[in-house]
TrEMBL record:
Species of origin: Candidatus Tenderia electrophaga
InterPro entries (alphabetical): CIS_tube_prot_N
Pfam families: CIS_tube (PF19266)
Name of the protein in question: Peptidoglycan-binding protein
Lineage of origin: Bacteria, Pseudomonadati, Pseudomonadota, Gammaproteobacteria, Candidatus Tenderiales
Origin superkingdom: Bacteria
Residue span, Contractile injection system tube protein N-terminal domain: 10-165
Length: 228
C-alpha cells in the first residue's frame, strides 16, 4: 500500500465483526481468515437510488434522489494445496474453505443473521456482509480430495449508525479537518476520535503519506478526510 512500508507483503484479511445496539462495530482479528494468494483484481461498485414517477402523458421524468445504495465489493481468490505455494502450517483445501465459510456465510444463531465482516487489504477497508459465494474445485488427488479451489466472493456494504450520521451531515467539521498530533497520540486512537472507528488508520496513513504510523511526530498536523 502506498504510504506504508513494513517490508512484508500484505495479504487480504477477512475478519468477523459484531455490531452492538448502538451501531458500534467491533472487529475480531483473532479469528480472521487470511488468503493464501491475493486477488489479481477486485471491483468496488457505488450506486445511487432514484425515484422516477411519471405522470400519464408526461414526455420526461424528473429523477428524485432516494438514497445511497450499499457499496459492493467482488473478487476471486485461489486456495492451492498442491505445494506450489509454500506456506508454513498451511492447511488442506477443504479445511481452509470451511474456515472461510464459517466467517462469511455461517448463520449466527445468537444474532439470527450471518456475520458482518471487515475486508482489509492495503488501502481497501470495507465493512459488509456476504452477498454470494461460489466454490469451484479444479484439481484433485486420486482419492478425490480437492487440491485447488477457486472462490468467487461478493460483499454488500454495511454502514454503522455513526458513519451514516456523519455522511448525512455533510457540513459537520468532523467529516474533514486537520488535527495536530500530541505526545502519546497514535493513528488508530485519532481515527477513533474522529470516525468512532480505529480501523480507518490505514486510509489516513495513505492520505498523509505516513510510512510509519506507529511513530507520529508531536506537533505535526494530519488531515482526516471525509468518509467515503
Amino acid at each position: 500500500m502506498a504510504g506504508i512500508s513494513t517490508g512484508l507483503k500484505k495479504k487480504l484479511k477477512i475478519s468477523p465483526c459484531t455490531v452492538d445496539d448502538s451501531g458500534n462495530v467491533n472487529v475480531d482479528d483473532g479469528t480472521a481468515f487470511e488468503v493464501m494468494l491475493n486477488p489479481a483484481s477486485y471491483s468496488h461498485a457505488y450506486s445511487i437510488g432514484y425515484n422516477k414517477k411519471e405522470a400519464l402523458g408526461q414526455l420526461g421524468s424528473d429523477a428524485k434522489f432516494s438514497g445511497i445504495k450499499p457499496e459492493k465489493v467482488n473478487f476471486d481468490i485461489v486456495i492451492d494445496g498442491t505445494g506450489v505455494v509454500q506456506l508454513v502450517g498451511a492447511k488442506d483445501v477443504k479445511t481452509q474453505v470451511q474456515e472461510l465459510t464459517d466467517i462469511v456465510y455461517k448463520y449466527d444463531g445468537d444474532n439470527h443473521e450471518p456475520n458482518h465482516v471487515r475486508l482489509l487489504w492495503g488501502s481497501l477497508i470495507f465493512f459488509g456482509r456476504l452477498e454470494s459465494m461460489s466454490v469451484e474445485y479444479t484439481l484433485f488427488k486420486p482419492s478425490g480430495e480437492p487440491l485447488r479451489a477457486k472462490i468467487k466472493l461478493a460483499f454488500s456494504g454495511f454502514m454503522s449508525k455513526e458513519e451514516e450520521a456523519l455522511r448525512a451531515k455533510r457540513s459537520s467539521p468532523d467529516l474533514s479537518h486537520v488535527i495536530e498530533v500530541k505526545a502519546g497520540d497514535t493513528l488508530p486512537l485519532l481515527c477513533y476520535r474522529v470516525y468512532k472507528d480505529s480501523s480507518y488508520y490505514l486510509e489516513v496513513a495513505r492520505v498523509n503519506d505516513i510510512t510509519n504510523f506507529r511513530a507520529l511526530t508531536p506537533g505535526s498536523k494530519l488531515h482526516f478526510p471525509p468518509l467515503r
